[in-house]
Input
Amino acid sequence: MAIPLSYIARNMVARRLTTALTAGGMGLVVYVFATVLMLAAGLQKTLVSTGQDDNVVVIRRGSQTEVQSGIDRSQAGIVDSIPDIATGEDGRPLVSREPVVLISLPKRSNGKAANVVIRGVTPAGLALRPQVHLVEGRMFRPGSAEVVAGRAISDGFQGAGLGETVRFASRDWTVVGVFDAGHSGFDSEIWGDAEQLLQAFRRTGYSSILFKLADPERFDAVKSELEADPRLTVELKRETRFYADQSEALAKFLTYLGTGISIIFSIGAIIGAMITMYASVASRVGEIGTLRALGFSRTAILVAFLGEALLLGLVGGVLGLLGASAMQALSISTTNFQTFAEIAFGFTLTPGIVMASLAFSLVMGFVGGFLPAARAARLRIVDALRAA
Amino acid sequence: MFVLLFVLRNAFRHKLRTTLTVVGIVVAIVAFGVLRTIVDAWYAGANASSSARLVTRNSVSLTFSLPLTYAQKLRQVSGVTGVAWANWFGGVYIKESNFFPQFAISAQTYLDMYPEFVLSPEEHRAFMADRTGAIAGRKLAEKYGWKVGDQIPLRGTIYPGTWTFNLRGIYDGAESGTDTSTFFFHFDYLNEKVKQMYPRRGDQVGVFVEQLRDPDEAAAVSQAIDATFKNSLAETLTETEKAFQLGFVAMSEAILVAIQAVSFIVIVIIMAVMANTMAMTARERYGEYATLKALGFGAGFVAFLIFAESLGIAMLGAGVGIALTFPVAQGFADAVGAILSGLAISRETMLMQVGAGLLVGVIAAIVPAWRAARIRIVDGLRTIG
Output
């Protein structure tokens, strides 16, 4: 026969301060654990939503990022003319040759400089990224010194707000619009007219070419065809894959750091739970004896105390998750080591993280409660009754 | 004396509980120390930089280069006694996760300007004589098991193709803080190959480094340099080497702030654990405290007992924790390899660890001590553990 749950729950209420301190400690651990996982998930979500699955990015072979890549006009012409490129509503092929450079701009918050991506786009380039739409102002006019800024850049960097000017390549560029890219990586970019930017930066080649496949199934065929072409030194990646690869190192770093810290923290929290549960057992030796004398088995006692520890863990887990879910309102902006450019991303709470955090808190409760519960179960009735 | 013994006996009355608490504090103090040391390591590059050197780069961003011809003009700027230059190479050694910094340098002038890279005269001569030669830091060479004479292939990401270098020397750091995980080779070799492949990209330099006659002139000289190239095709931005390095640190600031925040959260967590221990301890002993009061000891004495016990346990944990921080930080440094240079535990970190221990001990004792001091003798004698 099992000991009723209400007995277990009432024990926790009877020792409010201790319960609150222990659950609070566990809550903080779960909070840190969940927050870091949310950060890694937010980064991945940002970079995955940056790409479209049927879009293909072409960069110079081995260059890894757009900024390091370079494709001259003759090579671009060969890539442009393949028959596998989809056509847009206006009947023109959906292909965009883009120069991508980094400029350093001071942040609004502390005036320190960080690298921001400037991308030259074409009308087709806009059609290739349907998640991007203007929220303020208007689009830049082709052939003018006008740019539009992503929302994260507009909010975070000096000179990038609507109507302000940024100076680079010996010219002042007016920000005439702010666009929202649906929390994708483009939110951390500034866009201008491709040909204008090429001239301003005195470049003759593009950085990358983006096109949409007419038939998404043909990706592998197109890839092997172009990569084998002796006139070209390029590599092709699906846009989704391209951006996922760029976040790999930062996401891994965040996950490792978070897991490492959580493990260290959980040792502290488990010790806290253990102390609480040992005390809970010690102060109830008489009660345990009575329960045993009434006919409750050793297993029932073990289950009751383990249940109390698990409940303690659960309370901590829920507290921690509540705190972590409040973090969703914030976003963080840092330099991605792989692209050397600023990227803004949010905290994303996924069902997987909720499950992992709750499981983590229950494990802490279980590990912390097992030894004390075993001690309670091992008590002999006579000794226990005498102790009271 | 007698009082101390009393406190000590009390502290170890519940051996298991006290041990667990001490272990918890040790873990927290170690974690705190290691996290702060990691943050310090980020700043190691900036701290090791010389105040007698300026760095000039393209004002647009580091990914833009400067013409090699600027070197002549830089030498003419008053206050500059030497000019060297370097290009970031960004090659991949076997696989992408094997990251280490690689620079193409103006060999003789660059090494003259960085006396902290110590190379034996024979190796120095061999490096200078071989245009495809390279030198690597001790830490880097040890990580990949390189020996002088090895051929090292790097796959270029910025400069296409596979580049093979002959390792002509392994340099050591003059001081313990010097980073020895960088790979250097001849700028002339890079420049020549680039000119063959992409004539337009030749004679371009990533950053210039200038030696100052007098470090106090840094601000004036950097302004003079930037003024020289104002309104040119490649405007420059000149700053001290330290500011240049701090610029990199600032890029990861969000992460550093998070690590620092976390290092304080661990202290808060352990505070909760410790406060819990002291609350339980005091509650069990209300009867004894009442007895002490009945014997004529004041409320202050009772509070003192609790504070002394709490502080004793916290400081024991802090002491063991500080001692353990050294091997743990070393183990961490060995695990991550060449990425973080020099995980040295600073004095400030240790002082902060002691401070954290004191804080935990004091805060944990406040509520229990207040309660025990206020307890009425009759109530206290009536309570059962």
In short: The mean pLDDT of chain B is 89.
